[in-house]
Amino acid sequence: MEITRENSPECMAYTDGPDGSTFCNAPGPFVVERVYDTSLVVCAEHLGSILLHAKNVQWPPAITWEGPGQRPPNTYTADQYAQREAEVHKRLFSKES
Ligand SMILES: [Zn+2]
After folding, report:
1. Alpha-carbon distances, residue 41 vs 15, 67, 83 (angstroms)
2. How many alpha carbons fall within 13 Å on the CB side of residue 15?
3. How far apart are CA 77 and CA 97, in angstroms?
4. Alpha-carbon gap, residue 16 to 23, rounded angstroms
5. How many Å lie between the centroid of ligand 1 and the Cα of residue 81?
6. Which of 15, 60, 66, 67 has the lowest tally of Cβ within 10 angstroms?
7. How far is the CA of 56 from the centre of ligand 1 (A)?
């Protein structure tokens, strides 16, 4: 199913700080991957604060575009991200020296 403005997941950032309790709930076109934790859906306004303050954010950041609208050129699709991760893993853990 194509993600549209109407069915897009909502931003999971708190509007009242990192330890807050009120979700932003704006449409969240970005997904930020975390280590041993669930991914976070975020809007453009909260992307920076999530990268800086959310727990277990993968570093360097892994940000994918889920839409709606056209993907910005500097974000990966989920497939592109998986391919990139495989290439990095191969480079880091190959037996060649
Ligand atoms: Zn937000």
Report:
1. 14, 11, 21
2. 8
3. 32
4. 8
5. 23
6. 60
7. 18
CA of 18 to the centre of ligand 1 (A): 12
Task: Indicate left, alpha or beta for 75 from its phi (over 0: left) and psi (-120 to 50: alpha).
Answer: beta
Q: Provide the pLDDT confidence category of residue 3 given band limits of 50, 70 and 90.
A: very low
* Distance in Å, CA 54 to ligand 1 centroid: 13
Q: Token match 């839409």: residue?
A: 67
CA of 52 to the centre of ligand 1 (A): 14
Which of 58, 53, 20 is CA-nearest to residue 39? 58
pTM of the model: 0.70
* Separation of CA 91 and ligand 1 centre (Å): 35
- Would the pLDDT of 78 be above 90? no
